[in-house]
Specification:
mainly alpha; 0% strand; single chain; 79 residues
Amino acid sequence: MTNTATNPAAYDDARKIEAGLAVAEDALTNLEFLHALAGEIEDLIAAQVAVARAHRETWHDVGQALGTTRQGAQQRYGL
């Protein structure tokens, strides 16, 4: 399976869906595509959080970058 999160065309397709332009013939196929893309993006975010923490970025700074609190970031991505 192609990693849609690293495929620029996937973002174009997601924007088309957001604009109300169907990428697939039916809404459920579009929904499945967006759900898969969201999961892959979440994996990329988690990996980048690990990189940031390995570079000694604080949970406060990580949370700020993610638009959440220190506690929120640590609960979602921490140990």
